[in-house]
């Protein structure tokens, strides 16, 4: 007796790993995808001078100019090293950053000022009503957050009796934000900075022209697509599926024989870059330069376009025993063949970046 078994391979989405972790969607038609990683130039705005036990640094409000009209809030994580503001700063993993307590720093960032929430932070710290002239709420929120970060990364301590260059209300507000963040922040491990899209077919079988179930594992916020030619992506109820999210189960219903490729042209892939990315200054050749390391304070979403290809091959293989019968259709239940105990995954998954436009900095189109 012969039965149809699914055979193929599943590959990690190498195209996504390369393309979406960097500038990704922002490449011109005649350019190659950029390497993974992100970069930008430093932008400075006036801040508040802080008084401390070892030095009196100014919490200059720092941002990274991403080359797309947006600047993202970042903080210094090396108080004893000078800022190389004229140099490009490139992303590096935490393991390459000579800074202690980055999990605690990220915990502070997730509760602290991210460039958008100054009023909310001052309210949470109980100082929304303080007189802070001539400074703004943004400067207060940034200074308090930076002071908390420096305490973690450099062992620097703010002077509680006279914490800032400002008047009493400024002192009270900055110190309260600092104290609030250190008292209410828990360590957060380095987030997954690489986007991924994987398909698990461990339970996939063929039933006529229907193949599945497949289960999506991804850290994309969403991935929408148009139905492919020659097949329909459906859910367990037979309804059309036009979007993939993490943990979703789907099937592929072919128009004809179940031995074909399925190409999905996406409408959008939405990927949220998390807070906590770390950056170092680099020279013209891209080599690291001694200088303040910076950490990204805010998450942001970017959209991309890509193609996904599922290659599903059905082969006739000997059956050792009759397969159980479906009660209604009588079709045989066929399980995915295995070799050495490893599932032969159902579908080569490849995501190929569709280069859309050029961009100067290595971030997504909405970075």
UniProtKB/TrEMBL annotation:
Signal among keywords: yes
Protein name per UniProt: LPXTG cell wall anchor domain-containing protein
Region spans: Disordered: 27-51
Domain of life of the organism encoding this protein: Bacteria
Sorted UniProt keywords: Cell wall, Membrane, Peptidoglycan-anchor, Secreted, Signal, Transmembrane, Transmembrane helix
Entry keyword annotation includes Cell membrane: no
Record domain Gram-positive cocci surface proteins LPxTG: where: 320-357
Residue ranges of domain Thioester in the record: 74-186
Record organism: Glycomyces terrestris
Signal peptide: 1-28
Matches recorded under Pfam families: Gram_pos_anchor (PF00746), TED (PF08341)
Segments traversing the membrane: 333-353
């Amino acid at each position: 007796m012969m039965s149809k078994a699914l055979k193929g391979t599943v590959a990690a989405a190498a195209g996504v790993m390369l393309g979406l972790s960097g500038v990704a969607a922002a490449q011109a038609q005649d350019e190659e995808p950029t390497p993974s990683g992100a970069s930008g130039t430093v932008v400075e705005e006036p801040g508040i001078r802080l008084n401390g036990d070892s030095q009196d640094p100014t919490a200059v409000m720092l941002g990274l100019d991403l080359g797309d009209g947006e600047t993202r809030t970042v903080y210094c994580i090396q108080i004893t090293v000078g800022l190389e503001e004229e140099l490009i700063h490139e992303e590096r993993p935490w393991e390459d950053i000579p800074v202690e307590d980055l999990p605690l720093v990220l915990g502070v960032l997730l509760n602290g000022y991210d460039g958008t929430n100054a009023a909310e932070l001052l309210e949470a710290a109980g100082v929304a009503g303080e007189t802070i002239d001539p400074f703004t709420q943004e400067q207060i929120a940034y200074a308090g957050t930076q002071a908390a970060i420096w305490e973690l990364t450099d062992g620097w301590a703010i002077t509680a009796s006279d914490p800032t260059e400002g008047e009493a209300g400024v002192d009270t507000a900055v110190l309260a934000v600092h104290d609030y963040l250190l008292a209410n922040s828990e360590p957060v491990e380095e987030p997954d900075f690489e986007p991924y899209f994987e398909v698990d077919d461990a339970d996939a079988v063929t039933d006529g022209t229907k193949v599945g179930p497949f289960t999506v594992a991804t850290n994309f916020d969403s991935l929408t697509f148009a139905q492919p030619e020659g097949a329909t992506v459906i859910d367990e109820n037979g309804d059309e599926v036009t979007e993939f999210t993490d943990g979703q189960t789907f099937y592929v219903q072919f128009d004809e024989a179940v031995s074909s490729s399925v190409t999905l042209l996406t409408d959008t892939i939405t990927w949220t870059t998390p807070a906590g990315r770390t950056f170092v200054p680099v020279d013209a050749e891209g080599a690291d330069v001694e200088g303040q390391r910076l950490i990204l304070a805010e998450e942001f979403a970017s959209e991309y376009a890509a193609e996904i290809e599922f290659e599903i091959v059905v082969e006739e293989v000997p059956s050792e025993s009759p397969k159980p019968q479906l009660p209604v259709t009588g079709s045989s239940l066929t399980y995915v063949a295995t070799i050495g105990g490893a599932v032969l995954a159902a579908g080569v998954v490849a995501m190929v970046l569709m280069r859309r436009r050029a961009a100067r900095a290595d971030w997504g189109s909405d970075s």
